[in-house]
Amino acid sequence: MSVKVCKFGGTSMADGNVINSVKKIIESDKERKYIVVSAPGKRYSGDIKVTDLLYNCHSELLKEGTCKNSFAAVRARFVSIVKELVINFDIGSILDETQKEIDDKKSEDFTASRGEYLCARIVAEVLNAKFVDAKDVMFFKENGSLDGEKTYRAISFAVGSEEMAVLPGFYGKGFNGEVKTFSRGGSDISGAIVARAVNASVYENWTDVSGFLACDPRIVDSPKAIRNISYKELRELSYMGANVLHSDSIFPVRKANIPIRIKNTFLPEDEGTLILPSSRYVHGGNVVTGVSGKKNFTVIFIEKSHMNSEVGFISKVLAVLAEEGISVEHIPSGIDTMSLVIESCQLPETTLSRVLEEINTSVQPDIIRVIENIALIATVGHGMSSSVGTSARLFNAIAAANINIKMIDQGSSELNIIVGVKNDDYEKCIRAIYGEFFR
Length: 439
Ligand code: ASP
Prior knowledge:
Blueprint: E1 4-8, H1 16-27, E2 32-37, H2 50-64, H3 68-85, H4 91-105, H5 108-127, E3 130-131, H6 148-159, E4 165-168, E5 171-173, E6 179-181, H7 187-197, E7 202-207, E8 228-230, H8 231-239, H9 250-255, E9 260-264, E10 273-276, E11 290-303, H10 313-323, E12 337-343, H11 349-363, E13 367-380, H12 390-400, E14 407-410, E15 416-422, H13 426-438
Helix pairs in contact: 1-3, 2-3, 2-5, 3-4, 3-5, 4-5, 6-7, 10-11, 12-13
């Protein structure tokens, strides 16, 4: 029988009533056997996510030696969830024990992980399912990356014979034997790892939206929903800011060709978005699948006559950045010019002047110039490679909106065209591109 792994995000765990809806969703499909949960999220705007409450506990612990005051808010959230669920579950003792462990261990990761831990314990009780602690089955290597083989084996061994199992997302066991978390939003990654471990037919990621939209709804009013998208397209879009799903959660399932379906806990009948391997993906006729972007990049522009024939020029420039631990997003180049596009947060003033000086010494360029406050906008779609005139349409639309393009980069897969514009033109540019391809 094929199995589905379902990950429920923070808003799907926010209170007892929503958890009851989640129970109905799970019970409506026998294949939904392995459940990964986040910590309870916001119940209303202005509410505080449990994970954030836990980070407050850690701050208090560092200052006062105990998390007593801040933990009261965490306790209140879980006590009220259990009350709303009307289950016979001694959450009080588990909370007492957790508070003591937080005080004793003094570890930020351990503290932050307790939202998922407590939530999974409750959901396992509600579903009458086996609770499997992520710290016993998710392992990190010494360098902080996932120990995939060990993890997949441990998960499939732990859940394989269970009718149903619930696992907390967001953490596992670090190389030193202590709890270690993924980056924020990391329960998405945990869900993908479980899906891979049990070779799920699909990884369902339940959130509070009905899938991906073709662009940011804060910029364009009611943009179109994306029904089908490939992993590659999604990686491009989510890297550039479309953040329904943690961008790292694609890797484990992509390797095993497991599709991801984004679903809405509050509108479970909605189809959502299906994310497929490129080989199985058929685009819905639209040339462009989505448009997204990010502000605040810095471009270092370098010019030198005969750059093209100077062996090792580019590698010398890149060595300067590597030495400083700076990663480069894009390197558009001409015969005698190259630009380095870098996230501005990596280049505080002192670092920037050091980098410029080192590049000057290393390659003696004729001109070196810095352009700040640049936004990058990615227009993404497999359809672009096979349709003549896409870039003409894109650049005409941007020109018609009277926006000056500072940089252009097209990925060699023809999956995306990235343009750099001034931060101030960001929203206008997205609207122009969306208007051209979707209206
Ligand atoms: N609870 C964690 C966070 O708030 C992880 C997650 O929600 O995926 O980042």
